[in-house]
Amino acid sequence: MAGEDCARKRQSGSATTCKTPENEETQKRPESERSFQNASNGRVDVDRVITRKMQLIAEAEQLKPAFMKEVDSHFTEFVNSLVAKSALLDSSSSASPFPASCLEKELHKAKTLRAPPEHGKIFTPRRSLLDELFEVSHIRTIYHMFIALLIVFILSTLLVDFIDEGRLVLGFDLLVFVFGKFPVVFCTWLCMFCATVIVPYNLFVWWAQGYCSSSHRVIHSLFYGMLFVLFQTAGLGFGPTYIAVSYALPPASRFIVILEQVRLVMKTYSFVRENVPRVLSCVKDKSGTVPIPRISQYLYFLFAPTLIYRDNYPRNPTIRWGYVATKFAQVLGSLFYAYYIFVRLCIPQFHNSSQETFNLRGLVLCIFNSILPGVLILFLVFFAFLHCWLNAFAEMLRFADRMFYKDWWNSTSYANYYRTWNVVVHDWLYYYAYRDFLWFFGKKFKAAAMLSVFTVSAAVHEYVLSVCFGYFYPVLFCLFTCFGVVFNFTLNDRRKGPIWNVIMWTSLFLGQGVIICLYSQEWYARQYCPVENPTFLDYLKPRSWSCHVKM
């Protein structure tokens, strides 16, 4: 027997190893099985096994982020390409009021009429980013923290008023003031909107119908182009501004009028810019039907939360009226939030600022004390308008593309921040300002195109603030054209990593502090130091620099 032979060899002290069938089977087993067997026999160091296990777990955790990032990037590229191809197929194969031959030739020959790529912005059904993030309990808790901060502001105001007045003061005098003369605002908006519905659409129809049969097409186009420019500058440009100034509308009422003015100007330009090349292409191809959009399509575009015209947009099947009510309630809550921020953080700080002598120390303290209210106002403007207001109108119109903004808070460069903060306005500037500039002057002038877009955007922002506040103080224009341009080229897309996100947020905080501080000082300086017979230079000269001398 093999067992007895082994016993005799062990007794004789032989150094040879006895190989029984059981031993041979054990040696042929994998190392892992033998380790477990040894462990069961108590002959393996348990600490070594645990250490090895922890090393494997650590290596797996190190590989997981890279693996997930790689999968996510490939999946995103795949989905984006699939959506783009699907949208192009839908746009080319769906039923259309225009001839199929005209649409095909438009896609292939529009290169001479429009800036590439020919299809422009593609609208696809997608939710707003905050709606998706609020489904995560951790993100929703941040939203609850802002609500708690609003409750603290309300309690602080009520307690201070009760201590000072001996009773609860529930008046909202500031809100009543800034939104005053609302009937004038409504009548002005109604006139602007009716004129926008009637004049640009009919001018385009008359031009398109007469362009085919006209023997002097250049003169015909120049005539209607001049009429359109006249309407844009005089009707939508000068008229609302004159009413806002002559009727001395308060700040918030002016913002409503002027922002609607800018919105309607941008929308009418997009309508003409998108449809004129189609008419020129079909006339060039001698198509029998002139592609003129229906008035219903134009009306839908005027209310839709986008500045890029399309005949049709992706639509949702139903309207969630509860969602609409929630968004409008959040807009109303944001207004009261802004009210308490100004009452508790801004008015006490700037009410007597004009009585103090201007010095560098006071300016630095003012800027840093204005960072908190400035950042809160920034968040409220983003949440109330770009998320709540636009989503409410999108839901009522069943507008399915809700990408009004992207994750701008994760930006590591100002170039990415400008692209993601307000996607609605960025799309208009990109397709009609930046890309058309390159189309006219060539792709070699990308830097010049970018500077021109910055200049136009800064000028429009400063125009809105100047008219709404009633004075010219180009703080935002200087920040936009100087620091904004420098940061755009220095903090570009090549800057990655958390440190650049920290730098971006730090500069954004400081910028908001500068804006709130300087504009608030100028506002109170003009209240305390009025000029009896102001000249044109008095409107341009900052009053806050010299107001303390007169008091």
UniProtKB/TrEMBL annotation:
It catalyses: (7Z)-octadecenoyl-CoA + cholesterol = cholesteryl (7Z)-octadecenoate + CoA; (11Z)-octadecenoyl-CoA + cholesterol = cholesteryl (11Z)-octadecenoate + CoA; (9Z)-hexadecenoyl-CoA + cholesterol = cholesteryl (9Z)-hexadecenoate + CoA; (9Z,12Z)-octadecadienoyl-CoA + cholesterol = cholesteryl (9Z,12Z)-octadecadienoate + CoA. The active site is at residue 461. GO terms for molecular function: cholesterol binding; cholesterol O-acyltransferase activity; fatty-acyl-CoA binding. The chain crosses the membrane at residues 142-163, 175-201, 222-245, 321-342, 363-394, 445-465, 471-490, 502-521. It is found in: Endoplasmic reticulum membrane. Belongs to the membrane-bound acyltransferase family. Sterol o-acyltransferase subfamily. This is Sterol O-acyltransferase 1. The gene is Soat1.
